[in-house]
Amino acid sequence: MVANLTNLKITRNTITLRQIVLDKLRDAIINYQLKPGQRLVERELCKVLDVSRTSVREALRHLESEGLVQYAGQRGPSVTVLAAQDVKNIYELRAALEGLAGELFCSRASDEQIQQLQDTTDALKAAFDRAEVSEILACTKDFYDQLLEGSGNSEVGASLYRLWARIMVLRAGTIAHKGRWKNSLKEMQRIMQSISQRNAEAARKACVAHVQAAGAIALKQFLHD
């Protein structure tokens, strides 16, 4: 009897409402729909998102832990405004961590993981050719997810993921910079070439150079704005 009812099995959606609210607000900040310094009034966000104040409040507290939201006394939450020193600090730490990840990947990743990273690099080039910013960002995230997994050091990944949200905010600006697309792709292809040769030192240097180039643009844009 039970065997005949297998087609009735319910597929549960494991994405919670809290996660959906969190993702929506994070994306709005990364895409500058919610701008740096803008106040985040819970009542207004509840109305726009059509969710309870509890869901919004929990999401804002999580975004505070990611560095995207800040609280200032009675003023309440607002979108974080980064200072020039914040940008420098983020890219210095990112360069050190990604350089280490690239170095470790060369010695620890399997041949299958290297091929997967190559496939992602090829997909990234196709996204650049189509000038699809959303695809570029998605492929870039896939690239780093795979790089970190193959590095075999979960602490490197955990440290980078704590910076990830703010990196995404800054990355959206650097990718839009004139001429950055072509240079960014070449830098990531250079990382991939070093990895394919399992040249750990070259991979580390290529990762660091890529981050430093992006950091210089991010800081220049930040100071100009």
Write out key terms for the chains shown.
Arc Repressor Mutant, subunit A, 2 domains, Four Helix Bundle (Hemerythrin (Met), subunit A), 2 strands, mainly alpha, two-stranded antiparallel sheet, 225 residues
Summarize the structure.
It is built from nine helices and two strands, in the order αααββαααααα.
Question: How would you describe what is shown here?
Answer:
There is one protein chain. With 225 residues, this protein is an all-alpha fold. The protein folds into 2 domains: 17-79, Arc Repressor Mutant, subunit A, CATH 1.10.10; 84-224, Four Helix Bundle (Hemerythrin (Met), subunit A). It has helices spanning 17-30, 42-49, 53-65, 84-108, 111-130, 133-151, 154-175, 180-196, 200-224; strands at 69-71, 77-79. It has a two-stranded antiparallel sheet. The radius of gyration is 20 Å and the shape is elongated. The mean pLDDT is 88.
Mind sketching the topology for me?
Layout: H1 17-30, H2 42-49, H3 53-65, E1 69-71, E2 77-79, H4 84-108, H5 111-130, H6 133-151, H7 154-175, H8 180-196, H9 200-224
Antiparallel strand pairs: 1-2
